[in-house]
Amino acid sequence: MNISVAIDGPAAAGKSTVAKKVAKILGYTYIDTGAMYRAFTWYCLKNGINCQDEKASCSVINKVKIQLLPNDVVLCNGEDVTKPIREPFVSANVSYIASYKDIRLALVEQQREMAKSNSVIMDGRDIGTYVLPNADVKIFQIASPETRAVRRYEENISKGIPCTLEEIEADVRKRDYIDSHRSFAPLKPASDSVLLDTSFLSVDEVVEEVINIINKKLKEKEKRG
Ligand code: DC
Description:
Elements (H helix, E strand, L loop, with lengths): L3 E5 L6 H12 L2 E4 H14 L7 H5 L7 E3 L5 E3 L2 E2 L7 H10 L3 H16 L3 E5 L2 H5 L5 E6 L2 H14 L6 H17 L12 E4 L5 H22 L1
Parallel strand pairs: 1-6, 1-7, 2-6, 7-8
Antiparallel strand pairs: 3-4, 4-5
Helix pairs in contact: 1-9, 2-4, 4-8, 7-8
2'-deoxycytidine-5'-monophosphate binds next to helix 2, helix 4 and helix 8.
């Protein structure tokens, strides 16, 4: 039987770091849905499309083919965009793209397809509420905006992506606002999700906690038959 685990939460809450590690330990497939919205944004920017223009952005839906490959590799129309999609110019625009219903519907369809044939850990903003409403386990992972900004800043610097802490914190706060105020599938915890505050936990502690939550939920499910 395929298991699905949804991890949602605000920007830079450590979802992907944790989900990747848990997926490796449990042998599940990790699906980074944010990378798909980032790749779409990258395509628009590369082709001179204003990401704040919904009509122009949605007009290229059929021209954008996004593939998530093993080892976090992301392809957009066959081009490796793994690194550029993490750069600040993409981060600053991705929340606009992610607020457009038609783009979401196209990407959600792909996400649901990926979850059909594998046990998955999928991270994003709307996985538990919209993409996989029947997920076996739903976690809403949070941390304070300051903590998240420091984490993302250190991650970018370690990857050689130039940025300042101030610009990262401003970006995180702006994306939180746009992601949670859009009308279609906004960022919010599913009513049956487990809230996990990682502000004062190390990555390994969060990984352990997530695995505990998964095991507990799966046992409860088994008991219910
Ligand atoms: O997780 P991330 O920071 O890479 O996500 C990039 C953006 O994509 C984020 O600002 C919100 C959006 N997103 C979304 O709206 N729904 C998802 N399932 C995943 C990401």
